[in-house]
Design a protein that fits this description.
The protein has helices spanning 3-8, 14-29, 34-44, 48-51, 53-67, 71-74, 77-96, 101-115, 118-128, 134-162, 165-186, 198-211, 213-241, 249-258, 261-276, 279-298, 302-328, 335-392. By secondary structure, the protein is mainly alpha-helical. The protein has a single domain (10-184, 195-392), classed as MFS general substrate transporter like domains (Growth Hormone, Chain: A, Up-down Bundle). Helix 13 (213-241) crosses helix 18 and helix 16 (279-298) runs antiparallel to helix 17. The chain is globular and about 55 Å long. It starts with a helix and ends with a helix.
Length: 393
Amino acid sequence: MSNTDSEVAPGLSRTAAFALAAAAGLAVANIYYNQPMLEVIERELPGAATAAIPTATQLGYAAGLLLLVPLGDIVERRGLIVAHFIALAVALIFAAMAPGGLALAGASLAIGALAAVAQQVVPFAAHLAGPAKRGAAVGFVLSGLLTGILLSRTLAGFVATHAGWREMFWLAVPLALTAAIALRFLLPRSVPDAPLPYFAALRSMATLWIEFAPLRRAALTQAALFACFTLFWTVLPFRLAAPEFGLGADIAGLFGLIGLIGVLAAPIVGRVVDKSGSAHTVLLGALTTLASWLVFGGWTAIPGMVIGVVLLDLGLQSALIANQHIVFALRPAARSRINTVLMSSMFIGGAAGSALGVAAWNAGGWLYVSAIGIGFGAIAVVIQILAFRRRVA
């Protein structure tokens, strides 16, 4: 292995690392395409079912995490990942052809579940990396995942404005199939870490939750932080379309480019975690996320929203990298199931943020939305402060 390869992680070549990072981004992007397009979709398919599309997608992702990601511990990972991407392409075809809001919500539920393949990719990177570089490897792959999250909004907003929302789903089909083909040839085969029966693997996640307090703490913290994240991005198109701004889905998508600062920060955060530990990084990430919502609520002009987006993405990503570093070390043979517990909790929080965001916007506008964001951010900070006090007591 070259020195260049070892900068990513020993045992993880640069080619494989880039393939995993790109696959994570392409997969997770599918659960965010609908957010900047929601106002456009509602014009064609009005109704309560359409308004529920972001929530359905987040719940589907949580279900995929719970029911599909644990398979990574008990079956061969490369074939599992490839099969997920092929099925995802099929679900995207159904979304592109959806005749109504209810059908699109159903397709979105399936897209969310299958896009959870992104969380098969992250433990695979940790599996291939050596312990001393695991944070760097996870940070590198998460930088690809974050790129997918952010650029998905930019791409979807542009395509929805200039071509249509259905065309965005059609565009995502060959992207998913390309990921399947690339990973089939670039990734090594794996040996299952814990060849358990499927239902035994599912039951074991409850045991992991009970056994590991750091896992519970990480899961609850990330749920609150991701609620902050989805709250903002779900409401943003409606906020920008309000009379004081009068901006469209393409501008909402461009906000994703601002958050690319987090992409640059993710590998750096991973290396810091490898050298200095994780606990303080999680607390700092929670404080940064809370600060973002204080900025959103107190500075309602576009510059305030720009600064808030940078803080929001940086805070969430820093805490997630540090928390994954913590939980992946708890039991190596159960990394996929541990990641399932962490990320299922996180995306249930995300679904809550999406649902509460739409309800708060309809009930009281941006003021109500900001209050909810501050509340979720404060919950994450309190969890980490209490944990810090227990560690120093």
